[in-house]
Amino acid sequence: QVQVVESGGGLVQAGGSLRLSCTTSELTFDDYAMGWFRQAPGKEREGVSSISRSGDRTYYADSVKGRFTISRDNAKNTMYLQMNSLKPEDTAMYYCAVRRTALRTAYFKDENDYHNWGQGTQVTVSS
User: Fold this and answer.
1) How far apart are CA 94 and CA 11, in angstroms?
2) In whole angstroms, what is the distance from residue 77 CA to residue 126 CA?
3) Is the CB of residue 4 less than 8 Å from the CB of residue 117?
């Protein structure tokens, strides 16, 4: 079972920034496409951003485009989500998800495409 661990959440004022990190227990980290999802209270989980194994293909939800940046450092077994210009509506539990794939340049937007999930890290943006 792949262990997935998120970190970096916290409380920040509107307009501020946070950087989330996601690591896995897998030695073959670069065999996995990865994504960030979030779930606010009373709402369904939604996709935020995804990245391919190679890191050169990415996806962003319209709601975060231009404010969030996804990246990965395969040498450090870590994926990042840099979140700038945060808004109160970004408040949610953020989850990292991974999926092993043979496709180096594929990213996956749908939560049903992912096999392993972390426990989540809370992001709270105050107005």
Assistant:
1) 13
2) 31
3) yes
* Residue 82 CA neighbour count, 13 Å, CB half: 7
pLDDT, residue 17, reads 98
Give me 18's structure tokens: 């946070």
pLDDT given for residue 1 in this prediction:
81
Contacts of 2 (CB under 8 A, 6+ apart): 24, 25, 26, 32, 98, 115, 116
**pLDDT tens digits for range 27-70:** 789 999 999 999 999 999 999 999 999 999 999 999 999 999 99
**Of 68, 84, 1, nearest in space to 35 by CA:** 68
Extract the tokens encoding 115: 């096999």
